[in-house]
Amino acid sequence: MSWLRIVWYYCLILFSYEIYGDEDTLVQKQTISMAFEQLKYRMESKHELSVLPQLRVIRNQAKHYAQRTIEIQTILIEASIRQHFGDYKHSLSMHYQALELAERVGKPRIMVETLLAIIDLELDLERYDHAQRYVNQATQIAQALNQDDELLVHVKLWRAKIYLEKGSFRQALYELELGQKLAKNNSPLSARLLLIEAQVALRLGNYLVSRTLLNEFSLKYMSSANDKGKLDYQLALAESALQAGEFSEAIELAMKGLEQTFHTRYLEEQASLQRLLASAYAQLSDYQQAHLYLKRYSLTERALDQQKRNNKVLQLEAQYALAHQQQQVSLLEKDNAIQAQQIVQHEQTLENTKLTQQRWLLIGLLCLAAVLFIYWRWQSRRYTSKLEMQVAERTAELKERNKRLQTLSFTDSLTGLSNRHYFFSTIDSQINALPEKHDMIFCIVDIDHFKKINDTYGHAAGDLVLQSFADILKQCTRNSDLLVRWGGEEFLLVMPDMSRRDAQEAVERIRQQVECFPFIVNGQTVQCTCSIGFAPYPLTPDLQEQVSWEQVLELADGGLYLAKEVHRNTWIGLDSVRQLSAFDVEYTLKHYKEQVRQGNIVVSSSYVGAEIPA
């Protein structure tokens, strides 16, 4: 009777554990879903690098609890962020990883979403044939889901985008017409379809049709459009005005759109607006302004081409390294298989030999077999050791090549300093490693009148000045500081664990060294100066969660522009913020000068007696 009671209690405990264990798993899954939805809502407005750690935590938890859909969507979001910031190499790898998981899960909807994300990346890389292949695959899957019209509208929208990029405007209009029929007044989808249809009409020269579509977009969807949609609308509206011959209105609209691209990564739209302004000014015979915006357009296009070319080179090098490594592994596997086959054949030969020998030679044959076996084992170990040594050498060689490749991708070829790619890959880890209640100073340094040096002495002389300038910055900074060539004649200096007063001394030391240094250009001594703006992170302990490091970097950039406007060869740094409860970062960035004048933000400057201009 006692044994039956023990068994009964044991079964009851197991049953209770399964019930409560399932409830705990369900609660964890609901928590993960809620956290992901909140993060997804936050990402709808703009891309932020600061969400990557939280995104990876959610992905690991979703993987642990087998929530494959959330795991795939987190991979796609991180890949989209990397794509937005130009990291196409890792973005492409993560897109393929998501596609592999989606194929394994077997859900058609998540499969189509993954394919559409890959199509977006392929269009950025200008690989239209790849994009066409993926959109055909997505169309087949979406058509199999007869009841999901929204998914089919997404596919039609991306097919129209591909035709627009390839110049097949009639086919694009056909796909857009089918998409509008299926959209059924779906506001986000209808808005995107209207914008693309307006762009196609402009390419065909139908500016009246384009204006009608844009007016409909403005009335119905402008309030709910995101920043990218509003910028596309502004660009299309300016192009329609240019085609209509309303050049002054085109300039006004383009200027408004150009303001929206400042401090963003929408370089393609910025280049289109600059080209449009140059055309409009040329039509009004204002050739000075036309030449100015044409030059800016050329510089923006050159930067875009250089970025795309670098990303494609990195992608090809990564594919070559991976293929070479897989080839080496395959060769090693074949060698091991041959050796294993030879060993088996040798053992079979010994076995057959032992069976055919006479009994009276059994002892001798056993001894001989033992000797042969020992010899075979020695040879096998020797050969295995040799193989391991070869594998280790090849692995070290591949590691060294990957290290050199990473160094090239993280280093500016002219100055030898780190580049933007390296900065974006390490800034989050440096901020996380910053001790509590310690500041990190973001400092932007710009060479004064650098364009005049290039125009007077040539670009080769300008490169020599940049190299000498970089050497001065290296001498004036600590080993723990991060020194980056930010672009052109601008340099970014990140100084962790430094007080604001020490930062003033550091930037003053840089300013004096540059002012006193004799730059040798074509055998002549040229005096150069620099302007500096800096800001601390966190701005204040009370605003640590409110103000991100990207916004602090923009505040430092505001200080730089103010220093150039007040008096070059000076520095301006943000010291403190008054009225913390009413502090608005976006307003401060747009009205930096006014905020300094009113005393809402306190700055320090090396130029004594400088007045903030009205």
From TrEMBL:
The chain crosses the membrane at residues 360-378. It comes from the Bacteria. SMART domains: GGDEF. Its EC number is 2.7.7.65. Residues 438-576 form the GGDEF domain. It is an enzyme of class 2 (transferase). Keywords: Membrane, Transmembrane, Transmembrane helix. It catalyses: 2 GTP = 3',3'-c-di-GMP + 2 diphosphate. Gene3D superfamilies: 3.30.70.270, Tetratricopeptide repeat domain (1.25.40.10). This is diguanylate cyclase. It comes from Pseudoalteromonas aurantia.
